TrEMBL record:
<dbReference type="Pfam" id="PF03992">
    <property type="entry name" value="ABM"/>
</dbReference>
<dbReference type="InterPro" id="IPR011008">
    <property type="entry name" value="Dimeric_a/b-barrel"/>
</dbReference>
<protein>
    <recommendedName>
        <fullName>ABM domain-containing protein</fullName>
    </recommendedName>
</protein>
<feature type="domain" description="ABM">
    <location>
        <begin position="7"/>
        <end position="60"/>
    </location>
</feature>
<dbReference type="InterPro" id="IPR007138">
    <property type="entry name" value="ABM_dom"/>
</dbReference>
Length: 106
């Protein structure tokens, strides 16, 4: 999850974000992604991607197309934690399911 604050140049940002999303989508382990904008603060955007594992995400960042299109954009995101792992989920009306962490115990 990478968050951005865009104060002008919205169309250029969206074009770059689409290119970044396409580059990431082409990498092994990619599950889904979306570009979103806040309903409350239209200058706040988020590029959200979901991966099979933390390792798949990290390896994707090394791809040539990702380095050319996505990395420069991601470097402009807000300086905050951006990689999260899913530890619990629930489908509509379903039970909560959990999964173990991909992180090694420290």
């Amino acid at each position: 999850m990478n968050r951005f604050v865009i104060d002008g140049g919205e169309s250029a940002f969206v074009e770059r974000a689409h290119a970044a999303l396409a580059a990431l989508a082409a990498r092994p382990g990619y599950l889904r992604g979306e570009l979103t904008r806040s309903l409350d603060e239209p200058s706040s955007w988020c590029l959200l991607t979901e991966w099979e594992s933390v390792g798949a995400y990290r390896r994707a960042l090394g791809g040539f197309d990702v380095k050319i299109t996505a990395t420069p954009l991601l470097a402009e995101s807000l300086f905050e934690p951006c990689a999260y792992e899913r530890l619990a989920s629930a489908l509509p009306g379903g039970e909560v399911t959990t999964r173990g962490s991909d992180r090694a115990d420290v």
